[in-house]
Write a structure and sequence with these properties.
The chain has 171 residues and is α+β, with helices and mostly antiparallel strands. Helices cover 24% and strands 15% of the residues.
Length: 171
């Protein structure tokens, strides 16, 4: 992994039961290390995409994804820096599974968010220096150009979503 501030990490979920029942199979996408090759189909040209890391094995554990995709960011948060973990993809692509997990109680099924929270609060609990911690967290969804606050559902009554504000001095 590079020492870059931005990393692109791709996780490919396995084909689900419905897709299998419909005869679906992964016949257009091939993996070669950290490169994803998409064969030509339906008149589209072939394409190659290179990421910092590609999780193509459906058996990749949630812990492995956390360790590579989020752990460094959470250590930065613990050290006082801001951090963002951004999940992007089509509906049904596996964003919620990766970010939340299938179960926040079963360790092997926890996603990035419960693991991050546990990491931060374990660190605070083990602190022996009496440091005062302030934790701020935003949890947003952008869907069809509308931004929703997932931690405050009441703020989403407005169908237009949250307003984007920019301050020249602070960004």
């Amino acid at each position: 992994m590079s020492d870059c501030n931005i990393r692109v990490i791709c996780r490919f979920r396995p084909i689900n039961k419905r897709e299998i029942a419909e005869g679906g199979e992964n016949k257009y996408i091939k993996f070669n290390g950290n490169t994803v090759h998409v064969d030509p189909y339906q008149g589209r040209k072939e394409q190659n995409f290179t990421m910092d890391k590609v999780f193509s094995d459906p058996k990749t554990s949630q812990q492995d994804v956390y360790n590579l995709a989020a752990r460094e960011s959470i250590v930065d948060v613990i050290n006082g820096y801001n951090s963002t973990i951004f999940a992007y993809g089509q509906t049904g692509a596996g964003k919620s599974f990766t970010m939340f997990g299938a179960d926040i109680v079963q360790e092997e099924l926890k996603g990035i968010i419960p693991r991050s929270c546990q990491h931060i609060f374990d660190h605070i609990e083990q602190d022996t220096e009496g440091i005062e911690y302030t934790i701020k967290c935003s949890f947003l969804e952008i869907y069809k150009e509308v931004i929703r606050d997932l931690l405050n559902p009441r703020s989403n009554k407005n169908k237009k979503g949250l307003k984007v504000r920019e301050t020249p001095s602070r960004g």
